[in-house]
Design a protein that fits this description.
Helix content is 27%, strand content 33%. It has seven helices and 14 strands. The strands form two sheets. Strands 2, 3, 4, 5, 6, 7, 8, 9 and 10 form a nine-stranded antiparallel beta sheet that branches. A five-stranded antiparallel beta sheet has the order 1-11-12-13-14. Helix 4 crosses helix 5. The longest helix has 14 residues.
Amino acid sequence: MAAYLDRIGAVRPGRAGAAELARLQEAHLDAVPFENLSIHLGESVVLEPAALLEKIVDRRRGGFCYELNGAFAALLRALGYRVDLLAARVFNGAKPGPPFDHLALRVVADDAAWLVDVGFGRFARRPLLLDERGEQRDAAGVFTVLPSGTADDLDVRLDGEPQYRLELRPHALADFVPTCWWQTTSPGSLFTRGTTCSRPTPGGGRVTLNSTRATGGTRLLRTAPDGTRSEELLAPDAALAAYRTHFGIALDRLPTAP
Protein backbone atom coordinates (compact mmCIF):
# COMPACT_ATOMS: atom_id res chain seq x y z
CA MET A 1 0.00 0.00 0.00
CA ALA A 2 2.77 2.43 0.92
CA ALA A 3 4.61 1.72 -2.34
CA TYR A 4 1.43 2.22 -4.39
CA LEU A 5 0.64 5.51 -2.66
CA ASP A 6 4.21 6.65 -3.28
CA ARG A 7 3.83 5.65 -6.94
CA ILE A 8 0.89 8.03 -7.37
CA GLY A 9 2.24 10.75 -5.08
CA ALA A 10 -0.54 10.40 -2.52
CA VAL A 11 -0.66 10.13 1.26
CA ARG A 12 -2.68 7.49 3.06
CA PRO A 13 -6.14 8.95 3.73
CA GLY A 14 -7.37 9.08 7.29
CA ARG A 15 -10.72 7.58 6.28
CA ALA A 16 -12.33 5.81 3.34
CA GLY A 17 -14.47 8.79 2.37
CA ALA A 18 -15.69 10.34 -0.87
CA ALA A 19 -13.40 13.38 -0.80
CA GLU A 20 -10.42 11.12 -0.15
CA LEU A 21 -11.50 8.86 -3.03
CA ALA A 22 -11.59 11.83 -5.40
CA ARG A 23 -8.06 12.85 -4.43
CA LEU A 24 -6.79 9.30 -4.98
CA GLN A 25 -8.45 9.09 -8.41
CA GLU A 26 -6.93 12.38 -9.56
CA ALA A 27 -3.50 11.37 -8.25
CA HIS A 28 -3.70 8.07 -10.11
CA LEU A 29 -4.73 9.69 -13.38
CA ASP A 30 -1.88 12.19 -13.18
CA ALA A 31 0.83 9.65 -12.29
CA VAL A 32 0.01 6.42 -14.13
CA PRO A 33 -0.29 6.58 -17.92
CA PHE A 34 -2.87 4.88 -20.08
CA GLU A 35 -0.71 2.70 -22.35
CA ASN A 36 -0.72 -0.49 -24.38
CA LEU A 37 3.03 -0.91 -24.80
CA SER A 38 3.10 -4.49 -23.47
CA ILE A 39 1.22 -5.68 -26.55
CA HIS A 40 3.94 -4.29 -28.80
CA LEU A 41 6.89 -5.26 -26.61
CA GLY A 42 6.00 -8.95 -26.54
CA GLU A 43 5.01 -8.82 -22.86
CA SER A 44 2.10 -10.82 -21.47
CA VAL A 45 -0.81 -8.98 -19.90
CA VAL A 46 -1.63 -10.99 -16.77
CA LEU A 47 -4.87 -10.14 -14.97
CA GLU A 48 -3.82 -11.14 -11.48
CA PRO A 49 -3.43 -8.58 -8.67
CA ALA A 50 0.20 -9.47 -7.92
CA ALA A 51 1.19 -9.14 -11.59
CA LEU A 52 -0.66 -5.84 -11.98
CA LEU A 53 0.96 -4.35 -8.90
CA GLU A 54 4.40 -5.54 -9.99
CA LYS A 55 3.95 -3.80 -13.34
CA ILE A 56 2.36 -0.56 -12.21
CA VAL A 57 4.03 -0.06 -8.82
CA ASP A 58 7.38 -1.86 -9.00
CA ARG A 59 8.18 -1.24 -12.69
CA ARG A 60 6.37 2.10 -12.72
CA ARG A 61 4.53 1.35 -15.93
CA GLY A 62 0.94 2.04 -16.93
CA GLY A 63 -1.62 -0.12 -18.66
CA PHE A 64 -5.09 -0.17 -20.14
CA CYS A 65 -8.48 -0.53 -18.46
CA TYR A 66 -8.23 -4.08 -17.10
CA GLU A 67 -4.80 -3.37 -15.63
CA LEU A 68 -5.30 0.16 -14.32
CA ASN A 69 -8.71 -0.33 -12.75
CA GLY A 70 -7.80 -3.84 -11.60
CA ALA A 71 -4.77 -2.52 -9.72
CA PHE A 72 -6.58 0.57 -8.39
CA ALA A 73 -9.32 -1.69 -7.02
CA ALA A 74 -6.68 -3.57 -5.00
CA LEU A 75 -5.37 -0.32 -3.52
CA LEU A 76 -8.84 0.96 -2.65
CA ARG A 77 -9.79 -2.29 -0.95
CA ALA A 78 -6.60 -2.18 1.09
CA LEU A 79 -7.58 1.34 2.18
CA GLY A 80 -10.98 0.15 3.40
CA TYR A 81 -13.27 0.91 0.45
CA ARG A 82 -15.92 -1.49 -0.79
CA VAL A 83 -15.19 -2.02 -4.48
CA ASP A 84 -16.98 -3.95 -7.25
CA LEU A 85 -15.58 -4.62 -10.72
CA LEU A 86 -18.14 -3.73 -13.39
CA ALA A 87 -18.16 -4.70 -17.06
CA ALA A 88 -18.91 -2.07 -19.69
CA ARG A 89 -19.42 -1.99 -23.45
CA VAL A 90 -17.66 0.92 -25.16
CA PHE A 91 -19.71 2.80 -27.76
CA ASN A 92 -18.48 2.82 -31.33
CA GLY A 93 -20.83 5.33 -32.86
CA ALA A 94 -24.41 4.56 -31.86
CA LYS A 95 -23.82 0.95 -30.82
CA PRO A 96 -22.10 -0.44 -27.73
CA GLY A 97 -19.33 -2.97 -28.20
CA PRO A 98 -19.11 -6.54 -26.89
CA PRO A 99 -19.52 -7.57 -23.23
CA PHE A 100 -16.44 -7.07 -21.00
CA ASP A 101 -15.12 -4.52 -23.51
CA HIS A 102 -14.12 -2.31 -20.58
CA LEU A 103 -13.62 -2.60 -16.82
CA ALA A 104 -14.78 0.16 -14.46
CA LEU A 105 -15.28 0.34 -10.69
CA ARG A 106 -18.18 0.91 -8.35
CA VAL A 107 -16.88 2.23 -5.03
CA VAL A 108 -18.98 2.86 -1.94
CA ALA A 109 -17.96 5.91 0.10
CA ASP A 110 -19.98 8.04 2.52
CA ASP A 111 -23.07 5.86 1.91
CA ALA A 112 -23.09 6.57 -1.83
CA ALA A 113 -22.08 4.48 -4.86
CA TRP A 114 -19.52 6.11 -7.14
CA LEU A 115 -18.31 5.31 -10.64
CA VAL A 116 -14.51 5.35 -10.56
CA ASP A 117 -12.49 4.91 -13.74
CA VAL A 118 -8.74 5.47 -14.13
CA GLY A 119 -8.50 3.34 -17.28
CA PHE A 120 -10.47 5.03 -20.06
CA GLY A 121 -8.09 7.68 -21.33
CA ARG A 122 -10.04 10.94 -21.38
CA PHE A 123 -12.73 10.56 -18.74
CA ALA A 124 -13.95 12.11 -15.50
CA ARG A 125 -11.24 13.46 -13.23
CA ARG A 126 -13.35 12.77 -10.15
CA PRO A 127 -15.79 9.97 -9.25
CA LEU A 128 -19.34 10.18 -10.61
CA LEU A 129 -22.44 9.40 -8.57
CA LEU A 130 -24.04 6.27 -9.99
CA ASP A 131 -27.52 7.14 -8.71
CA GLU A 132 -27.52 10.74 -9.96
CA ARG A 133 -29.51 11.26 -13.18
CA GLY A 134 -28.80 14.95 -13.64
CA GLU A 135 -25.69 16.60 -15.04
CA GLN A 136 -22.43 16.05 -13.18
CA ARG A 137 -19.87 18.71 -14.00
CA ASP A 138 -16.23 17.71 -14.03
CA ALA A 139 -12.98 19.26 -15.23
CA ALA A 140 -13.19 16.90 -18.24
CA GLY A 141 -16.72 17.96 -19.19
CA VAL A 142 -20.38 17.38 -18.30
CA PHE A 143 -21.27 13.77 -17.52
CA THR A 144 -24.65 12.07 -17.24
CA VAL A 145 -25.42 8.56 -16.02
CA LEU A 146 -28.76 7.44 -17.45
CA PRO A 147 -30.77 4.21 -17.75
CA SER A 148 -29.96 2.51 -21.04
CA GLY A 149 -33.38 0.93 -21.53
CA THR A 150 -31.69 -2.48 -21.49
CA ALA A 151 -32.12 -4.42 -18.24
CA ASP A 152 -30.53 -2.42 -15.40
CA ASP A 153 -27.61 -1.13 -17.48
CA LEU A 154 -26.58 2.52 -17.40
CA ASP A 155 -25.27 4.67 -20.24
CA VAL A 156 -22.46 7.03 -19.31
CA ARG A 157 -22.31 10.15 -21.48
CA LEU A 158 -19.77 12.96 -21.80
CA ASP A 159 -21.07 16.25 -23.17
CA GLY A 160 -24.05 14.32 -24.51
CA GLU A 161 -21.99 11.68 -26.34
CA PRO A 162 -22.30 8.05 -25.15
CA GLN A 163 -19.04 6.66 -23.78
CA TYR A 164 -19.97 3.21 -22.52
CA ARG A 165 -22.87 1.06 -21.32
CA LEU A 166 -22.30 -0.11 -17.75
CA GLU A 167 -23.56 -3.42 -16.38
CA LEU A 168 -24.21 -3.21 -12.64
CA ARG A 169 -23.64 -6.88 -11.79
CA PRO A 170 -20.25 -7.32 -10.04
CA HIS A 171 -17.60 -9.55 -11.60
CA ALA A 172 -14.32 -11.15 -10.62
CA LEU A 173 -11.13 -10.00 -12.33
CA ALA A 174 -10.83 -13.43 -13.96
CA ASP A 175 -14.10 -12.81 -15.83
CA PHE A 176 -12.31 -10.20 -17.96
CA VAL A 177 -9.49 -12.52 -19.05
CA PRO A 178 -11.05 -13.80 -22.32
CA THR A 179 -11.86 -10.33 -23.65
CA CYS A 180 -8.51 -9.00 -22.46
CA TRP A 181 -6.84 -11.78 -24.46
CA TRP A 182 -8.87 -10.77 -27.53
CA GLN A 183 -7.97 -7.09 -27.04
CA THR A 184 -4.25 -7.93 -26.88
CA THR A 185 -4.11 -10.43 -29.77
CA SER A 186 -6.85 -9.84 -32.34
CA PRO A 187 -6.21 -7.83 -35.52
CA GLY A 188 -9.70 -6.45 -34.94
CA SER A 189 -8.68 -4.81 -31.66
CA LEU A 190 -7.74 -1.14 -31.67
CA PHE A 191 -4.95 -1.93 -29.21
CA THR A 192 -3.09 -4.20 -31.63
CA ARG A 193 -3.10 -1.65 -34.45
CA GLY A 194 -0.73 0.83 -32.86
CA THR A 195 0.93 1.99 -29.67
CA THR A 196 -0.31 4.67 -27.31
CA CYS A 197 0.94 6.14 -24.05
CA SER A 198 -0.94 9.11 -22.61
CA ARG A 199 -1.58 11.06 -19.44
CA PRO A 200 -3.03 14.44 -18.41
CA THR A 201 -0.81 17.47 -17.92
CA PRO A 202 -1.33 20.27 -15.36
CA GLY A 203 -4.15 22.66 -16.15
CA GLY A 204 -6.20 20.28 -18.26
CA GLY A 205 -3.90 19.44 -21.16
CA ARG A 206 -2.60 16.07 -22.29
CA VAL A 207 0.60 14.52 -23.62
CA THR A 208 0.60 11.41 -25.81
CA LEU A 209 3.10 9.24 -27.63
CA ASN A 210 1.69 6.98 -30.32
CA SER A 211 2.74 5.09 -33.41
CA THR A 212 1.16 3.12 -36.22
CA ARG A 213 2.58 1.75 -39.42
CA ALA A 214 1.06 4.74 -41.23
CA THR A 215 2.93 7.30 -39.09
CA GLY A 216 6.31 5.72 -39.87
CA GLY A 217 7.54 6.39 -36.34
CA THR A 218 6.58 7.72 -32.92
CA ARG A 219 4.58 10.92 -32.70
CA LEU A 220 4.59 13.27 -29.72
CA LEU A 221 1.19 14.94 -29.37
CA ARG A 222 0.61 17.80 -26.97
CA THR A 223 -2.90 19.06 -26.28
CA ALA A 224 -3.17 22.40 -24.48
CA PRO A 225 -5.99 23.16 -22.00
CA ASP A 226 -7.73 25.23 -24.68
CA GLY A 227 -7.75 22.25 -27.05
CA THR A 228 -5.01 23.37 -29.42
CA ARG A 229 -2.64 20.60 -30.47
CA SER A 230 0.91 20.27 -31.64
CA GLU A 231 2.49 17.20 -33.23
CA GLU A 232 6.09 16.13 -33.71
CA LEU A 233 7.52 13.01 -35.35
CA LEU A 234 10.42 11.75 -33.23
CA ALA A 235 13.58 9.90 -34.15
CA PRO A 236 14.04 6.60 -32.23
CA ASP A 237 16.47 8.01 -29.64
CA ALA A 238 14.24 11.02 -29.07
CA ALA A 239 11.20 8.75 -28.69
CA LEU A 240 12.92 6.67 -25.99
CA ALA A 241 13.87 9.90 -24.21
CA ALA A 242 10.27 11.14 -24.46
CA TYR A 243 8.97 7.99 -22.76
CA ARG A 244 11.36 8.68 -19.87
CA THR A 245 10.67 12.41 -19.69
CA HIS A 246 6.90 12.46 -19.98
CA PHE A 247 5.94 9.11 -18.44
CA GLY A 248 8.89 7.92 -16.37
CA ILE A 249 9.06 4.76 -18.52
CA ALA A 250 12.56 3.50 -19.28
CA LEU A 251 12.62 1.26 -22.35
CA ASP A 252 15.63 -0.40 -23.94
CA ARG A 253 13.84 -0.53 -27.31
CA LEU A 254 10.80 1.02 -28.90
CA PRO A 255 7.53 -0.91 -29.03
CA THR A 256 6.84 -2.00 -32.58
CA ALA A 257 3.52 -1.10 -34.20
CA PRO A 258 2.21 -3.71 -36.69
